[in-house]
Amino acid sequence: MNKEGKVLGSCAKLYNSREGFEQFVKMTEGLKTKHGLNDVLIGMEPTGHYWRKHAYFAKERGYEVRFVRTTALKHHREIDESSSAKSDQRDALTIANITREGKYIDTVIEDGAMRQLRTLAKTRERLLRYSVSAKNALHAALDDYFPEVHKIFCSMGTRSLWAILEQCPFPDDVVGIKISSLQELIARSARKKAGAAQKAKALYRAAQKSIGLKRVGDADRFRVTIYLEEVKRTVLVLKDIARQIVKYAGYDPQESDSGSWVSRKFISNKGRWLLRKYLFFMSMRVVVLSKYFQEYYQRKLETKNRVGQQPKRKEILCAVAIKLIKVIFALLRDKRTFDDRVRATVTHT
């Protein structure tokens, strides 16, 4: 369609392949030559995922690409023909007409670092939806078989709960185990060992008085096992995103051992140097302004590295930067504010 609204050619099919894209370029250049046109403006509706490769391909070939909102397309279709009936041919003409009128979205098609960040954010949102769905399914299963467990373990993502569900997921299973064994199981899987004895006793008493369904069979056990594995998988993948951010900043620890010689750990420096620089500046400030990070810094000073040496100040600040990334990620993931009174934990390496 030209700027006067005249349709210049029929609606051709665009195949999702190299041959299909090259055929599109050939058709476009042919129309330009035939009608004496100088510029080409491509309009598309960014739904699904097929548009993405076409948009980047067109950009690489020097074409301008603009996007049309789905709602605008629907309203324009109804105004044009007083009908919301949909077809590929009608939509192509409507999109071309909207683009010709300049009613498109001015969107910059970014590549490189911006596209990587956008992809990471979208992946995280999808994983979050999967994680919430899996936790809800496990929560519903426990409501059927062992509802009292919710008062003892605050979250479906608790490692101590995972350990219990792997070994003794039903009240009868818990009653058949000694309290000392339950305490050892909880303490081995939990970060905070202090409350293991109290939780073990509470769990045993709850199992004795449980109102959960009786006569548990293989199907019930399979249900709990499948939901538990799904919860564990999604939670661990979400935690891996934090590690990917650390790698993206170039703060992932590296080793260079050879035979009996053990080297000091060092950061890879392979990520975004500007992000790494400002994270280092931030770590210098948080160890001064935040009690949480001050405590983390002081405890790192008291530890020794993997070769038995006192860590250097720069090494500790790099560890603070990694901790800062994980704290920010956890705050965004859990949608909560930072509490400076929480005790920092130190990982010995």
List keywords for this structure.
two-stranded antiparallel ribbon; two-stranded parallel ribbon; 3 domains; Helix Hairpins; 349 residues
What does this 3D model show about the protein?
- Strand 1, helix 2 (50-60) and strand 2 form a beta-alpha-beta unit.
- This protein has 349 residues and is mostly helical.
- It has three domains: 18-109, no CATH class; 115-243, Helix Hairpins, CATH 1.10.287; 266-334, no CATH class.
- The mean pLDDT is 81.
- It is 59% helix and 3% strand.
- Helix 3 (70-81) packs across helix 4 and helix 11 (273-289) packs across helix 12.
- It has 13 helices and four strands.
- The protein has a two-stranded parallel ribbon.
What's this, in brief?
The protein is 59% helix and 3% strand.
Provide a count of the helices: 13
Do you know the CATH topology of the largest domain?
Helix Hairpins
How many structural domains does the protein architecture include? 3
Structural class: mainly alpha
Ranges with pLDDT <50 over ≥5 residues? none
- Would you tell me the overall average pLDDT? 81
**What is the CATH C-level name of the largest domain?**
Mainly Alpha
Q: Helicity, in percent?
A: 55-70%
Order of helices and strands: HEHEHHHHHHHHEEHHH
- Characterize the largest beta sheet: strand count, sense, and whether it forms a barrel: 2 strands, parallel
Strand order of the largest sheet: 1-2
- CATH architecture group name of the largest domain: Orthogonal Bundle
Distance between the termini: 65 Å
Q: Tell me how many strands there are.
A: 4
Please tell me how large the radius of gyration is. 29 Å
Shape: flat
Q: Approximately what portion of the residues adopt beta-strand conformation?
A: under 5%
